[in-house]
Amino acid sequence: MRENMTLIKALAHRNKSFDLSGVEFQKLRINLRNVQEKNLQLAQANSHTLDELSTNRDRACFSGIEVAQNEAFLFHYIAASMTN
């Protein structure tokens, strides 16, 4: 009889351990899901930031070209007006 009680206690302890393990796994799954969602948000924000940076870099490049064209035009305009 005593052996049966020990066995029942051991089984109860094992079941409790399994239940706790299941709860811990569920917590880990929830934490993993939260981390994955945060990672996705950060990746999207990073992509948006890189798009803005690229756009601004293109604008700066085109602005530089525009300034160079205006300088060349003015140089030729001034040179032409000095020869007339």
UniProtKB/TrEMBL annotation:
Domain of life: Eukaryota
Organismal lineage: Eukaryota, Viridiplantae, Streptophyta, Embryophyta, Tracheophyta
Name this protein carries in UniProt: Uncharacterized protein
InterPro entries in alphabetical order: SGO_plant
Source species of the chain: Brassica napus (Rape)
